[in-house]
Amino acid sequence: MTTAKKSAPNKSATKAKKAAKPAAAAPAPVAKPAPVATPAPVAAPAPVSTTTIGLVLGALLTGGVIATALQSSVVPSSPGNGQSAATDAQIEAYIRANPELILTVVREYSINKEKESKAQAVNLVKTNDGKTVFGNPDGDITIYEFSDYNCGYCKRSFGELMELVQADGNIRVVIKEMPILSQSSYDAAMLSLAAAELGRYDEAHAALMQWPGQLDDAALDQIVADLGLDKNELQEIAASDAIQDILSQNREAAEALGVSGTPAFVIGDEFIPGAMPKDQIEALIADIRNGES
User: pTM here?
Assistant: First the structure.
């Protein structure tokens, strides 16, 4: 039996296969890290100007908070006109070391402004007494009342005020007509203000305050008749610019004082935004007379 010869491997093919084997890819070069940016220098805080320091110092001195400290070791006296740079630096350092003083001064400033506004409003109430007065016209105490003829609390306060005026004998009451509740409140105010021009205010005011029930047209006509006044004359006076000016001035004073309802009182320099019991009014009057309010 004849055996077939094994063919020898083809060296050329082997070499070709070896040549066909893909070569390994060369590793990609590692990228160099980007250089770290140098941080921008932090800007130094802007120096506080002499003007700003002066304003703050002025506020602090006005408030009386650091006056003593500045007069002693904190701020030496500065010769000549204006402050030296060293003084400004010391002031700034003191304020930065004691920032709570700024808040204290702001609070004190707000309180002082509120007191100032209140004093101006109280003076505005007192500038035009007009003819709506009852009690002792030369009394040493004046009570100002913002009032509406349809206000139940005003009616109650009127009774207590009358008792106080009669018992004391030295109290003057000025009514600031403030009709805010209804049209009949406005009509009643017109009646009383017109009566004031005829020298009959105290009578008209008492009649309107003591009227039982709502002050409608029929009630107002009855009051005019009871007082023996001429309705047409009253209406003519009520339509005048002078009467409208009184109401405008009363509204202006009420807004300045912060009056939002009736009754409201000014006694001395004290503003009372609401009804006040008779005994408390008596106590306040006693304090005013004793110089304690």
Answer: 0.64
For 148-163, letters b (16+ CB in 10 Å) and e give bbbbeebbebbebbbe
- Asked whether residue 253 is assigned to any structural domain, the reply reads yes
Look up residue 72 and give its two tokens: 């002693």
Same domain flag for 145 and 284: yes
| Residue 218: inside a domain | yes
CATH code of 173's domain: 3.40.30.10
Structural domain boundaries, residue 259: 129-289
Residue 98 included in any domain: yes
Three-class secondary structure of residue 264 per DSSP: strand
Residue 192 contacts residue 201 (beta carbons within 8 Å): yes
Peptide bond into 137 cis (omega under 30): no
What is the residue-level pLDDT of the chain in tens, covering all 293 positions? Answer: 444 444 444 444 444 444 444 444 444 454 454 444 444 444 444 444 444 445 555 555 544 445 444 444 444 444 455 555 557 788 788 888 888 888 888 888 878 877 777 777 777 788 777 789 999 999 999 999 999 999 999 999 999 999 999 999 999 999 999 999 999 999 999 999 999 999 999 999 999 999 998 899 999 999 999 999 999 999 999 999 999 999 999 999 999 888 989 999 999 889 999 999 999 999 999 999 999 86
Which two structure tokens, joined as six digits, stand for 19? 């040549």
